């Protein structure tokens, strides 16, 4: 008990000293406000990650770095946000990996279909050397990658019929992100893949100009897609990261101690969001069922995986050595 008390006292002293050091680090810093934008609503995992990040950054910089969050695509769609970051009109955001891959092509390797067998497997690669190497590549296009939050494992919904195998997708008009890997994946599965921004997709589903879309359970739930989509297939066809990303113009203006806080806070906020997503999924599926959505939890995964083999043939070499390195990491 004495050892416990002594250790607790030592921990308290060290935390107090660290807090005092942090305060000293920022005593001479001019206050700065960073605008963090994302395209989803306040119930979404992106907003959960953003608010945790805001809390951590403001606390650890003694309020010298203030984060203002702009949800609901209020500053533009994801491509617009990234372009704004490059020129300094937007400071930072939580951005789905798909649009980011339009700026650094190799980032799309993560979104090859059925690459990751579990969330934990994905986290090991993203948070390890391979993921960090790809984050660092963003600096080549005037962006700064901080950490990987998540969009999560993506699942199919549609308004027309239950889907159990690729044959059931034949002719369905499915919205996909504006990313060639997604487009080709769904074309190989037999769908009429239609790339479009998320904000446009919501209207298109309401108007019936598209039949379906693919997204993680948390998005399907938070955007109440049960109102336009009658069927969900837990295909878990792709694990989609999301990225805490900044523009290099604003990153380069920040002192080193603030940069350190931002990077550490982004990683912690990302891990927080991952856990919240995992905790909420069962309840979200139950709520969607209650709302009348028919959910297929056991589709013919072998048939889906076989159908997308041409995607690997087309893109495998395009990502250099990243695909074999990821596969090696997953087999360890």
UniProtKB/TrEMBL annotation:
Pfam families: DctP. Keywords: Signal. SUPFAM superfamilies: Periplasmic binding protein-like II (SSF53850). GO terms for molecular function: carbohydrate binding. Gene3D superfamilies: Bacterial extracellular solute-binding protein, family 7. Residues 1-23 form the signal peptide. One of its GO terms (cellular component) is outer membrane-bounded periplasmic space. It comes from the Bacteria. InterPro entries: DctP_fam, TRAP_DctP, TRAP_DctP_sf. CDD domains: PBP2_TRAP_SBP_like_5 (cd13675). NCBIfam families: dctP, TRAP_S1. This is TRAP transporter substrate-binding protein.
């Amino acid at each position: 008990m004495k050892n416990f008390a002594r250790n607790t006292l030592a921990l308290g002293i060290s935390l107090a000293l660290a807090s005092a050091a942090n305060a000293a680090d920022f005593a001479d810093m001019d206050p700065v406000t960073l605008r963090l934008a994302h395209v989803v609503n306040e119930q979404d995992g992106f907003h959960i990650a953003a608010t945790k990040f805001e809390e951590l950054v403001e606390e650890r910089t003694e309020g010298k770095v203030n984060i203002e969050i702009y949800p609901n695509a209020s500053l533009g769609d994801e491509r617009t946000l990234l372009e704004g970051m490059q020129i300094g009109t937007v400071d930072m955001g939580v951005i789905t990996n798909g649009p980011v891959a339009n700026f650094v092509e190799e980032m799309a390797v993560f979104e090859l279909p059925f690459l990751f067998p579990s969330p934990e497997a994905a986290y090991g690669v993203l948070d390890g050397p391979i993921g960090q190497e790809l984050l660092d590549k963003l600096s080549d296009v005037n962006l700064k990658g901080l950490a990987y939050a998540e969009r999560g494992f993506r699942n199919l919904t549609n308004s027309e019929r239950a889907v159990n195998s690729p044959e059931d997708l034949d002719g369905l008009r499915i919205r996909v992100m504006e990313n060639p890997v997604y487009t080709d994946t769904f074309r190989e599965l037999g769908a009429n893949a239609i790339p479009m921004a998320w904000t446009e997709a919501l209207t298109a589903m309401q108007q019936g100009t598209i039949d379906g879309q693919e997204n993680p359970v948390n998005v399907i739930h938070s955007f109440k897609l049960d109102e336009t989509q009658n069927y969900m297939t837990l295909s878990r066809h792709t694990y989609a990261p999301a990225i805490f990303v900044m523009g290099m113009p604003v990153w380069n203006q920040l002192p080193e101690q603030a940069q350190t806080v931002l990077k550490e806070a982004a990683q912690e906020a990302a891990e927080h969001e991952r856990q919240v997503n995992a905790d909420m999924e069962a309840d979200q599926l139950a709520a969607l069922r209650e709302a009348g959505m028919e959910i297929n939890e056991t589709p013919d995964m072998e048939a889906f995986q076989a159908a997308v083999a041409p995607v690997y043939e087309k893109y495998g070499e395009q990502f250099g050595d990243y695909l074999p390195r990821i596969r090696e990491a997953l087999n360890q």
